[in-house]
Amino acid sequence: MKVAIVGAGLAGMTAALALARAGRQVTVFEAEPLAGGLASGFRDERWAWPLERFYHHIFQTDTAIINLAQSIGCADHLFFRSQITAQWWQGCGYDLNGPLQVLRFPALPLVDRVRFGAVAFYLKYVTRNWQRLEQSTAAAWTARYAGQQVYTTLWRPLLEGKFGPYADEVNMAWLWARLRARSFKLGYFQGGFQAFCERLLAAIRQQGVEVCLNCPISHVQQHADGGWTVQMPGQGTASFDQLLVTGAPSLLQRLVPQLPPAYLGQLAQLRSMGAVVVTLALTQPLTGGLYWINMPKDQFPYLALVEHTNFIEAQHYGGDHLIYLGDYLEPEHEFFTLSKEQLLARFLPSLQRVNPAFSPHWVRASWLHRERYAQPIVPVGHSRNIPPLRTPLPGLYWASMSQVYPWDRGTNFAVEIGQRVAGKMLGEPSSP
Q1: Which DSSP category does 79 fall into?
Q2: What is the CATH number of the domain that holds 171?
Q3: Could you read off the pLDDT of 290-304 as tens digits, one per residue?
Q4: What is the rounded distance in angstroms from the CA atom of residue 250 to the CA atom of residue 262?
Q5: What are the angstrom distances between the C-alpha of 332 and each of 273, 274, 276, 303, 319?
Q6: Is the peptide bond between 331 and the residue preceding it cis, with omega within 30 degrees of 0?
Q7: Of the candidates 181, 205, 228, which is a domain's last residue?
Q8: What number of other Cβ atoms are within 10 A of residue 236's Cβ?
């Protein structure tokens, strides 16, 4: 049986590996010049390692991607390290990476710090009933159980930063999943996630998978017998028995407008935030050892400041100190149309508030990366909104970050959904 997969991100390549190992003849089509999707990287000529376009790490609980690394023989390239994740408050970044650090956080009275810790412990280690949690908004639930001051100081800025005008709609299962999956140590691959993607690409090619890079798909057509024809601009067509589309709902809508109206309606109702990330190569360190700082959006023009080289040594990047300035924004936000120079003019002045010694002369180089489909919005009762992996059209499947719910988007769950949709395609029983 011949299978076409649109998209060589982690979900598409993981599905390709499982299908090829089961004896399917698989072809993967990728519009970009390299594999990896949102986990792909870029490289400066000074660097030994590439860097992710959008900051990445994994957790010790991310068993799907850890097991995949073992399966393709690169588990020895994965390592975990402690780092400092901080909350910005009154001109400083405060470490919140453990119970003792939370108890020392001066923005809250001691009783609220204890309450915050107790609620976080309950969510992470006790309850597994996310179905009940999704019936309440994260705003209402955290204000009720953690207290109004904890909500206002810690949870509200996170929700507003991630979801902007949709902060009050997001359900509590989303926050539960973030805490549940988190580990105190973070994982990374030697050579970055692009190196891992290249190993996975090599593994699927060794299984006989044909991978066509720089090969966008213009449209697809269903055969009368249920098969599918894939049209490649300027490169002709190819026929397949099954078709898997990975990526945004809008991609599936564009490629297969003949889907039944009910399914298309489900796709149209799926909303998401986009991501805008400016990456800086600095000649000096910026944050004094902090890896990740959650920034208040009413004070800074971005949500997260990540000093990557406080996690991974600067020696891999020619001595550059690498900073991500990232934000989740509505796809219509002006940051998706402003130039890199215009964004730098807005972002750079704020760095002097992080480090008074900062000077724009520290910036050796800068890059801008944007993606309009980066963070699904998950309202109350969202599990009812998710279209199944098997579409109503015979032989057509869809797998995306919109379907990993209640878990949050990320490389681990891209791997997991790739394995899950492959099981569906092979006729194996699995959850929808």
Answers
A1: E
A2: 1.10.3110
A3: 999 999 988 999 999
A4: 15
A5: 9, 9, 12, 17, 37
A6: no
A7: 181
A8: 8
